[in-house]
Design goal:
Helix content is 23%, strand content 24%. By secondary structure, it is an alpha+beta fold. It has two domains: 123 residues, Alpha-Beta Barrel (N-terminal domain of MutM-like DNA repair proteins); 135 residues, Helicase, Ruva Protein, domain 3 (Orthogonal Bundle). The strands form three sheets. A five-stranded antiparallel β-sheet has the order 2-3-4-8-9. Strand 3 and strand 4 form a beta hairpin. Helix 1 crosses helix 6 and helix 3 crosses helix 6. The longest helix has 20 residues. The chain is globular and about 60 Å long. The chain binds a DNA duplex through helix 5.
Length: 294
DNA sequence: CCAGAGACCTGAAGGC
DNA sequence: TGCCTTCAGGTCTCTG
């Protein structure tokens, strides 16, 4: 579910509450939420107890709170249905609450996740170096060290990413969704960027020009920035910000999930197909289906 | 090394 | 009113 804009909205929402906060009365309610932790859910709760957060950071769809001496972090991944909620009213715990902690006199943090594809763990921070400039070093949790910088961070190297994409004999959409090439893009913003750049998802990455690949990446940056400005994309109550409120970008989507409705550019009816195992919505007029990929 | 399929979950929506 | 199938914003791991 949540892609870069949604995770960034959550990060901005929890940062004012979590920076400088100490965790107390930590409860972890489900073994699956702790599956990336070397121990049980109870062990995780015990190790989180009394930890003090320094900063709240994000790369792509991974979100973490740095701890004390800045060598460790609490890592969150929201998966398909994860939410992080801050509650200042002593509300009863919601269904699917996987982790609950007190972070202030009357303030509580909940990790809620219906489908349990998300997780929480404690993870060491390791250095990563930007291909753009070797002096740009960023410490990220070891479980996020394999992913590339995201489209909105200073370490993002447009030319290098375009070269990597062009070296892959996979559908362009598969390359965009590969977090090891560029992180933060998910199914919504991949479809939106491809629609904006007028490229069909099944076109082979290796068959596109650098100019086209740059155009797609810039479209992804632009659409994500617009989504961020309005709080992200919500279709239902599965994506909400830290206060439990939805984002408003769904009304601005051009393609994602809109098969059968007119293309906002040419009025042809949008169609749906499957590329790389994921649903793809496209305009058959603006985004020509490849006949033969080379 | 790389690409593709399957696995991991819960719940909503649509067909019969 | 069910019951069954399909689908959903994402990784991760195994196979060939």
């Amino acid at each position: 579910m949540p892609e870069l804009p949604e995770v960034e909205v959550v990060r901005r929402g929890i940062e004012p509450y979590l920076s400088g906060a100490t965790l107390h009365n930590v409860e972890v309610h489900h073994e699956r939420v702790a599956r990336r932790f070397a121990g049980t859910a109870d062990d995780l709760a015990r190790q989180l107890e009394g930890q003090t957060v320094t900063t709240v950071e994000r790369r792509g769809k991974y979100l973490w709170a740095t701890l004390g001496e800045d060598t460790r972090s609490i890592l969150f991944h929201l998966g398909m249905s994860g939410q992080i909620l801050v509650d200042e009213n002593h509300l009863p715990q919601r269904a699917h609450t996987r982790l609950h902690a007190q972070i202030g006199a009357d303030t509580f943090l909940s990790f809620v996740d219906q489908r349990t594809f998300g997780y929480v763990t404690i993870d060491n921070l390791v250095p990563t170096v930007s291909t753009l400039d070797p002096t740009i070093v960023r410490f990220v949790p070891s479980l996020a060290a394999h992913i590339a910088p995201d489209l909105l961070e200073p370490a993002f190297d447009l030319e290098e990413v375009a070269r990597t994409i062009r070296s892959r004999r996979v559908p362009i959409k598969t390359a965009l969704l590969n977090q090891e090439i560029v992180s933060g893009i998910g199914n919504i913003y991949a479809d939106e960027a491809l629609w904006q750049a007028r490229v069909h998802a099944a076109r082979l990455a290796s068959g596109l020009s650098y100019a086209t690949i740059r155009e797609i990446l810039q479209a992804a940056q632009e659409v994500m920035q617009r989504a961020l400005n309005v709080g992200g994309t919500s279709f239902d109550n599965l994506y909400v910000n830290a206060a439990g409120e939805p984002g408003y970008f769904a009304r601005s989507l051009a393609a994602y999930g809109k098969a059968g409705t007119p293309c906002p550019r040419c009025q042809s009816l949008l169609e749906r197909c499957v590329v790389g195992g994921r649903s793809h919505t496209y305009c058959p007029n603006c985004q020509k289906v490849p006949r033969r990929n080379r």
